[in-house]
């Protein structure tokens, strides 16, 4: 950010919009599922008659939120070697004759026991029909809200984008199809859903047909597959993977998957995960893979560019801090009307959008836009904004109408966590420690 830029450039960065609808606003009001989707889901859940549904829904929600990546084999080997060395050193400190073979066996058993006790045991999720219905009750509305909010970033900022084809990898209940249809229903002509779970594909199809086998699907031209299309030359305008990378066994699988998905992308690749440290780190892995890996065989030579949410392509500054916190966002939504569900809930998620075309940065118009990484703290005649800026740094800026112009101040005051805000002055304070407001991103 230019330290010399202390006054507002004479440009219409509002583009004719009122302050509360300025170009950086991408947050949505409280979302609810499309009526047809909600009615179909309620019908399926009611007919399934799952025992203890509310308790199982909460249990699955908690399990998926706390889910971690599997520990890499290399990490496990390194940990085993370090532990084995430590135990040998302790054993050698004791005087007397030692039966090395017996000691070696004891140490190996102790290492294995300790690793079993302290290592996260990752197992793939396997859905039968009943668990699929529990997942529907637990995650349909929240998952839809996160994806809809991520797609709104493209819809709001790229008015010319009118996708005709969609590929959704790890499609689950088909929430991406519904969210995409709500954004671009007039132009989408082919939607391919890929999920290895036949149970999930069946449930997704039932949702599209309103839980009536004889009915026409509410959204047409949706095709279900258990494997990705084979030809590397087949591309789709929009490619998505929502809450899918966390279901892959290791880093190698995740890297190969995002590389394959990128090859199949002609315009935008959208990745969404839970708003946890694990979700954040998986998306940053994917970001690094696609920005830094040079492929040997290239069918589409256009490189990846970060479209959102990062305003830069440098290392994520949150990962560089001593106390790592996820760069997550939130979206309010109305859950399915089921027992023990409140009237309104909040989905915390992380997303990454990569584009084949470098985004037209608003900085070229004389104003730099930064991404809000925490709720705006509104005070009398000033606001506190914590943001990620185009120089790759986290900044804390106190905005006032006198110092930063009335328009910039009012835009910031009307913005919320996850929006972009116009900045015309370099921040004096680099965030060194988390405030109480940023702790809410956990």
How would you describe this protein?
- With 442 residues, this protein is an alpha/beta fold.
- The protein folds into three domains: 19-27 and 367-441, OB fold (Dihydrolipoamide Acetyltransferase, E2P) (Beta Barrel), CATH 2.40.50; 35-66 and 124-355, Rossmann fold; 73-118, no CATH class.
- It has eleven helices and 14 strands.
- It has helices at 35-48, 53-66, 73-92, 100-118, 129-157, 175-184, 198-208, 251-263, 277-292, 401-404, 406-414; strands spanning 165-169, 190-194, 222-225, 236-242, 265-274, 305-308, 329-333, 345-355, 368-372, 377-379, 382-388, 394-399, 420-423, 429-430.
- Strands 1, 2, 3, 4, 5, 6, 7 and 8 form an eight-stranded mixed beta sheet that branches. Strands 9, 10, 11, 12, 13 and 14 form a six-stranded antiparallel beta sheet that branches.
- The longest helix is centred in the N-terminal third of the chain and has 29 residues, at 129-157.
- The radius of gyration is 25 Å and the shape is globular.
- The model is unreliable at 1-10 and 426-442 (pLDDT under 50).
Summarize the structure.
The protein has 442 residues and is α/β, with parallel strands linked by helices. 36% of the residues lie in helices and 18% in strands.
């Amino acid at each position: 950010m230019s330290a010399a830029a202390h006054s507002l450039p004479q440009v219409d960065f509002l583009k004719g919009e009122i302050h509360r609808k300025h170009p950086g606003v991408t947050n949505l009001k409280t979302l609810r599922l499309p009526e047809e989707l909600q009615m179909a889901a309620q019908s399926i859940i009611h007919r399934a008659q799952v025992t203890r549904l509310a308790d199982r829904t909460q249990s699955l929600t908690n399990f998926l939120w706390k889910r971690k990546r599997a520990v890499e084999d290399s990490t496990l080997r390194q940990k085993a070697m370090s532990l084995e060395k430590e135990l040998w050193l302790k054993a050698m400190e004791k005087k007397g004759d030692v039966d090395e073979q017996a000691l070696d066996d004891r140490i190996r058993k102790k290492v294995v026991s300790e690793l079993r006790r302290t290592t996260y045991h990752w197992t793939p999720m396997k859905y039968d029909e009943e668990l699929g219905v529990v997942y529907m009750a637990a995650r349909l509305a929240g998952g839809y809200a996160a994806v809809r909010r991520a797609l709104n970033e493209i819809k709001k900022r790229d008015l010319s984008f009118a996708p005709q084809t969609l590929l959704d990898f790890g499609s689950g209940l088909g929430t991406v199809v519904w969210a995409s249809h709500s954004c671009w229903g007039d132009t989408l002509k082919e939607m391919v859903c890929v999920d290895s779970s036949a149970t999930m594909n069946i449930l997704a199809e039932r949702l599209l047909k309103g839980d009536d086998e004889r009915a026409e699907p509410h959204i047409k031209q949706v095709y279900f597959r258990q494997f990705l299309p084979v030809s590397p030359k087949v591309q789709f305008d929009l490619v998505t993977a929502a809450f899918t990378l966390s279901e892959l066994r290791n880093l190698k699988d995740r890297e190969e998957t995002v590389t394959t998905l990128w090859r199949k992308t002609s315009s935008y690749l959208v990745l969404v995960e839970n708003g946890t440290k694990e979700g954040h780190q998986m998306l940053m892995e994917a970001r690094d893979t696609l920005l830094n890996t040079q492929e040997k065989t290239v069918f589409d030579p256009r490189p990846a560019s970060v479209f959102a949410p990062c305003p830069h392509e440098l290392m994520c500054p949150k990962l560089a801090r001593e106390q790592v916190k996820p760069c997550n966002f939130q979206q309010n939504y109305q859950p399915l009307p089921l027992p023990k569900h409140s009237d309104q809930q909040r989905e915390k998620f992380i997303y990454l959008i990569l584009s084949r075309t470098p985004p037209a940065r608003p900085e070229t118009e004389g104003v730099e836009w930064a991404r809000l990484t925490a709720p705006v703290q509104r005070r009398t005649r000033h606001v506190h904004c914590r943001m990620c800026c185009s120089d790759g740094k986290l900044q804390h800026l106190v905005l006032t109408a006198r110092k930063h112009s009335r328009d910039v101040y009012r835009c910031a005051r009307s913005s919320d966590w996850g929006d972009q805000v116009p900045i015309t002055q370099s921040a004096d304070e680099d965030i060194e420690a988390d405030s109480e407001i940023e702790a809410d991103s956990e």
